[in-house]
Amino acid sequence: MMDGDRSEDHHDIEVEGHGFERKISGILDDGSVGFRQPLLARNRKNTTSQIAIVGANSCPIESLDYEIFENDFFKQDWRSRKKIEILQYTFLKWALAFLIGLATGVVGFLNNLAVENIAGFKLLLTGNLMLKEKYFQAFFAFAGCNLILATAAASLCAFIAPAAAGSGIPEVKAYLNGIDAYSILAPSTLFVKIFGSIFGVAAGFVVGKEGPMVHTGACIANLLGQGGSRKYRLTWKWLRFFKNDRDRRDLITCGAAAGVAAAFRAPVGGVLFALEEAASWWRNSLLWRTFFTTAVVAVVLRSLIELCRSGRCGLFGKGGLIMFDVNSGPVLYSTPDLLAVVFLGVVGGVLGSLYNYLVDKVLRTYSLINERGPRFKIMLVMAVSVLSSCCAFGLPWLTQCTPCPIGIGEGKCPSVGRSSIYKSFQCPPNHYNDLSSLLLNTNDDAIRNLFTSRSENEFHISTLAIFFVAVYFLGIITYGIAIPSGLFIPVILAGASYGRLVGRLLGPLSQLDVGLFSLLGAASFLGGTMRMTVSLCVILLELTNNLLMLPLVMLVLLISKTVADCFNRGVYDQIVTMKGLPYMEDHAEPYMRNLVAKDVVSGSLISFSRVEKVGVIWQALKMTRHNGFPVIDEPPFTEDYELCGIALRSHLLVLLQGKRFSKQRTTYGSQILRSCKARDFGKAGLGKGLKIEDLDLSDEEMEMYVDLHPITNTSPYTVLETLSLAKAAILFRQLGLRHLCVVPKTPGRPPIVGILTRHDFMPEHVLGLYPHIDPLK
């Protein structure tokens, strides 16, 4: 169960009093400290894991506090804020959105600049050796460069930031759902994500930099939002307003949208991606800031690209940022064309769901290798690199040379350079090898070649078939190794080659250009794997700059998603589940309507009195990993036992460290409010908050008392124990809660039955308690 919100049973003393059995605090015979808690007649425990895979490493996870914690400090701070401070807070939100867009745009540009130049140097070296007919030297130069770059990327991930491996989109999606893990958005992860992605893409792997750019944008937003990093001595005190999970969540949503905008030059698509796929909570004010952020990215990219048009950026500009111009004149289609589009959607959905199935199996296999240590991670990357190099260099030998088209200008076929459709490879003069034009190119240039509409005969049917099979399976076995890797580009490559292959097979039966078939094939594969519709549609239209394709792209996306949903879930949803991240879906499972809240409350509930002994709190914090504790008002402070609210572990630690204790068991919350500030209880970034080991309390202080009311959220969300579990799950998800209090329906009982956390809603916990329940009913 998440956050350690339940724990093992502890020693206790039972007494009768006030109409119900209760446990009292005190030193027991064996010297341990008992906890003040209602006696609950249940022994069930939540055994779901608190460990998940982040990147390529297993690490502990916990929940985030997206709920506004309305304790006395929060209320005092909000009432005392002046107009200038409110204006400063509003201005900083927009200023940070601007900085996130600016930084993400610059990083996206430099990422492309580095990939184009590194990969371009490698391909030019290989091409020059091929022209001299030094084939073995060309292969070893090509494979050697790939191996060096792959090893560099794997070493960064294995030794510096394992959380940077993979695309990062499942981790960002989980974070925005309320799940945190160490280093998921750390500066070290950002560093490795940037350079690891550059090395991995330049190494010739069938991966993209688009997924890592989403994670990169989120890391940049987190770095700015938490006021920098104390570890690296980069802090900004004026960002104290954002030391809470709620504001950081909004900034990271802006960062994820900025990452998509920087990767695809698709600002509107970035906003829709964050809305449809990444974010779990959305509101109008966040929509405005996200749109502003992606607009900044678009302006920054266009400005930087203009600087490179003069040729001052090396090989960048010949490939450049992704932008595929599919402009072939009017898009005319008839009934047979629509049937062909339906066929593309159906087959794309089937192949996309198969792709997800195989990716899941490969990831589970690779996890067994990766968990054996950094050396095995690097060896796996090296093995996949050698295999990829052999395929890229060896498969073009299987195809025949093709005479250059008539009318092509001299020097253009075969071309002498890095990026071209007409690559010579081993062919004689005035001939080109079409498969090498796809395999011995950067992934972006290969997609441009597939999307081209210049001539339908540039790529043979056999070439397209070989390339499709190679890219389809190389993309599957590459995703999951310990390098930053995205899924967008492999899926677009496979879909574009499949779509162009269908266009070639149809020939004169269709009025659509083969380049448009490539676009529709890419859309069908994206819909079959990602299961997104609106955001993918807009991203593809922004990529291709062809609004006339809108109806056909919409149709093929809807069909492919519908077909694929019949077999399995989207690839990111599958990866989130496979990694063990307890993601809260936006809907309740059918079997939850047969249960009520009290049916899944698990473990022993530890609670504190409003004025509690320091030793009792210290012992509870030491012996458990709970992050939320009910606070009970009891006589003599009230007439009867009442639920006062919830106190967070982090706030209790700060309160104990301040040592604002009393020798008498009396209320003195007003004194604590005067001696502390709300910012003292602000959340530290990257897990740098206080730990129980940091406290230094004497035996005398252990016997003193502390008033918990100032730090207690006196308005927690509560539900009756008889509430449907389905309604409780929807409430928990939509409000972004970390703790949901379950209270009794009838009087004369303990004031709280238990606390629900996200792990209590997980299928493995619920179905483990009630195995006889049909999960589909």
Using brief descriptors, characterize the structure shown.
disordered N terminus; 18 strands; elongated; three-stranded antiparallel beta sheet; mainly alpha; 777 residues; voltage-gated channel
- Largest β sheet strand count, sense and barrel closure: 3 strands, antiparallel
Average pLDDT, rounded to a whole number, is: 85
Summing up helix and strand content along with how strands pair, one would put the structural category as mainly alpha
Low-confidence stretches: 1-43
User: Would you report the number of β strands?
Assistant: 18
Membrane topology: Multi-pass membrane protein
Protein name: Chloride channel protein
Family: Belongs to the chloride channel (TC 2.A.49) family.
Keywords: CBS domain, Chloride, Chloride channel, Ion channel, Ion transport, Membrane, Repeat, Transmembrane, Transmembrane helix, Transport, Voltage-gated channel
Q: How would you describe this structure to a colleague?
A:
The chain has 777 residues and is mainly α. It contains 25 helices and 18 strands. The strands form 7 sheets. It has a 3-stranded antiparallel β-sheet, with no helix packed on it. A 3-stranded antiparallel β-sheet has the order 4-5-6. Strand 13 (628-633) and strand 14 (642-648) form a beta hairpin. The chain starts with 13 loop residues before the first strand and ends in an 8-residue tail after the last helix.
